[in-house]
Amino acid sequence: MSIFKKIRKNKDQLTAILILLPSLILLAIFVYGFIFQTGYQSLTDWTGVGEPGNSEFIGLQNYKKLFTGLLDIRFRQSLVNTLFFTLFFIAGCLSLGLLFAILIDQGIRFEGFFRLIFLYPMSLSFIVTGTVWNWLLNPVGGVNRLPTLFNKEPWSFKWIASRTQILQFDWLQLPKYIGIILLVTLIYLSYRYWKQEKNIPAIITLVISIATLIWLLSGGANKIQILKVSETHGFNLAMIGIILAAIWQMAGYMMAMYLAGIRGVPEELREAARVDGANELQIYARIIFPMLMPITLSAMIVLGHISLKIFDLIYVIAGPDNATTDVPGILMFMTSFRGNQFAKGGAIAIVMLIMVAVIIVPYLVSTLKSEHEL
Length: 374
What we know:
Shape: globular
């Protein structure tokens, strides 16, 4: 009997493999194959003229130019724009989504209507959202005209036409900032390993963090000259309107996730907390919010992925030629298809891929590890 079960099991496995094989082949060719081709082309000087195989191999020169070249300041500003956009976009979506979910969870009247209102923007494409907000953010119209309804002077904020920067920093100090982020990350990992009683990883990360701290204090970061001149970057106020548009569209998604999580909390837990004298604020702080942490983490991954590869919303609202609102996706399009610098455009694409992988891969590894432990 065991022989027949084994044969049947092998047959089922073979059937599953044969069913998945066409999809795996297509995925390998049209996803990973093109990623490999883009990666190789980014190491050449191909300009889109002639066969890619006839181009000259130049190694990492395209990447070096992007991060240190005097003429590629626009790329570096696009990275800074993406960083600020990601931070404010995620924070705004999480905050508003949680607020909406808590309000709806109070058993308000017309709950279905409000859920529909909050979720409706999510059903729109970024193209539609961008078209609407392009009109709203027009400096000579849109929301700037609202005070005129009350016989007041219109607002003068330039929105997407603004050239003002805040939170500025010098690109020459980038090695120092990276070192600080690395130090904080290592200290956190060391503490986490120590709490999990994993002594060897905790000691290794602690030693590396001490070495990083010594390197920073000794001025090692200042010795890395990535540019010959000072180069200031910062948060462009033109990004405010784009961030508001993105939050407007995705806050409903977060509301739905948080509301599902809140409604999934057993009522017995709430009643037990009330019996122990806890008020509603304490119930949310001590019971509900901790149980929403997995949802928050998953949402941050999804929102981070969206923000890092954002293209269409900014393209429609601000246009491709607005350098103050540039992101790597738009610059890749401009560099490749307008500038015919396909190799450099491929390098920008690979940088985007790495940024997304830095967020997605650790999450997938952690998820698979947790499932394996279960």
